[in-house]
Amino acid sequence: MSVRLARLLCVTLVGVGVATSALARSPATHTKSGTLIWRGDVATAQGVVDEVAKAWQKAGHGRVELQPFNTASGIDAVLSGRADIAGSARGSDGSAEDAKLKFVPVAWDALVIITNAANPVRSLTLKQVHDIYYGRIHNWNEVGGRNAPIDVYAVASPGDGVEFSLRKLLFGRGNQPVAAPRLYVNTHQLEAGVRLNPNGMGAATLSDVRGNRKLKVLAINGISPSVANIADGSYPLYTPLYLVINPHNPKAKQVEDFIDFVQTGAGSTALRRHAVLPYQDGRALASLDSGRRSRILAEVGAQPSRIARTPPISAPGATYAAGAAQAPTSPNTLAARRALAQRQARDRAAAAAAQPARLSRVRGDVAGVSVSGLAHVRGDATTVNRAQASGHDFRKVTADTYQSRASASQNHGSASAKTYRVARGDTLFSIARRHAVKVAQLRDWNHLRNNEVKPGQLLRIRGD
Q: Which domains does the chain have, with CATH numbers?
């Protein structure tokens, strides 16, 4: 991420009327004895730091001054010494600036797709979310809604945590340009826009929007985001929340103590009150991360990015191994871990069955999108205006005729059926897993050249 670009963008947006009191604070505040300065995205402030900071002060450790704005401003402030801790819903983007900092995962949250509460759509598939952001789906009636344009909102800040993490999952790269002509300075501003527009759509975190009756959180592949569904890995769009520090900060010891505190009983209790899963309670999710990303990319028809990868998620103990307190485990957490272990076993079996279907055969490399006006942007999450997008990638595509739910359900059939009619949201991988066959077998029986299937298509699912 370009620090200069992050600063210029923040200043420009504030200058045209998007202001926040956080930026008005004087750097001199940083000299207060016993006070830690935290700055970062509003989602992490809402889900992690706000409640934990109160518990920290109540325990007599001092005060944490919160300056919520966005991810870029927080990372920039920690790098320059104007803040002690940054909050981020993404890990390092691999840039030279991020390489100077430490990203410590402290919790798990769900990346959620939000719409106006009046929107009749309740669920989207991963493929539909991908195609909406990619500019292939433009109208709500293409995903089961009313005849109205989909107004996609995004955060303009380079490297925003929510945007970067979502695009990393859907496209294989966090700096993927998307067809989102409406830009906001942070997720709270985005949420306010969606609340006012019945056709609006954007991304946020579960902890940040829970309880907001003016917003609707959409299920993904029929699975609603919840702490339980994050813990067992069934909801696919989960992400770590990070606290970012500068090892050369004069308050490094106090900062380490605060991060350790987040992992204690009091800190973990505060996290749970905000519908956030403490990192230690879901530490097995880290081992699922690589497989999860591959499955998502296969489902949406994308390929892994060939650019430098984000460093893998590491446990907090790798950074502060000595004396780090472990988060207590509740009966619900233990049950979630058992469910997660069972899911891991199923995923390994499914992956072995689908081994011949490698991503190298999936068409649609999203890394090659040609977009004008982004020549000088590097490693940053950016958005494009649909009217300015070039090439065929953002051209309106006519949707396939979708089969109704009623007729689709009639063709699901039993394990003994010889044919299957593809329903909305199906992929060749999911069909193979449902009928306990290999993807390669489905391709052979149906003379398919690739893994693409369409709603309504009749497939042979048995060879005899």
A: 3-107+240-282+300-329 (3.40.190.10), 110-236+341-368 (3.40.190.10), 405-460 (3.10.350.10)
